[in-house]
Amino acid sequence: MFQRGLIRQLLITLAAGFAISVIANLMDGSLRGYPFERVAIIILLSMAVCFLAGLPIRINRRTNDWWTHHQLIPIIGVIIGSVSMLLSCTVFEQVDHYYDITMIRSNPFLSIGGWAITIFCLLHWYPTLLRRNLWASQEA
Length: 140
Fold this sequence. Notes:
75% of the residues lie in helices and 7% in strands. It is mainly α.
């Protein structure tokens, strides 16, 4: 059961990461020249970092019980991460380079922070327990 749930979480997070990157590229223009290999490496590295950061949730029994019984936290985290990634497309900062070149780019703090929160919360979300808790509350 533990392995099946972990594999399901990894696949959901991987699919969501690719969907987010495709949407971000479509917002920039088109998918022509889509860097599939680089995107895959970034997604897998961020999943590994978020998995290691959330390892205490999986290992510590009390933390795991608390996290699985408060399923709104990862849902709200995914919403906050997605909103901050969307806001990064609207909040721009001006970057001055050498030779009098000025560029305007999206805010990297919002996009990277939103990406990390979204990947972390998707990776450590237990939707089967949420359904089980909702069904139990409806039957009572």
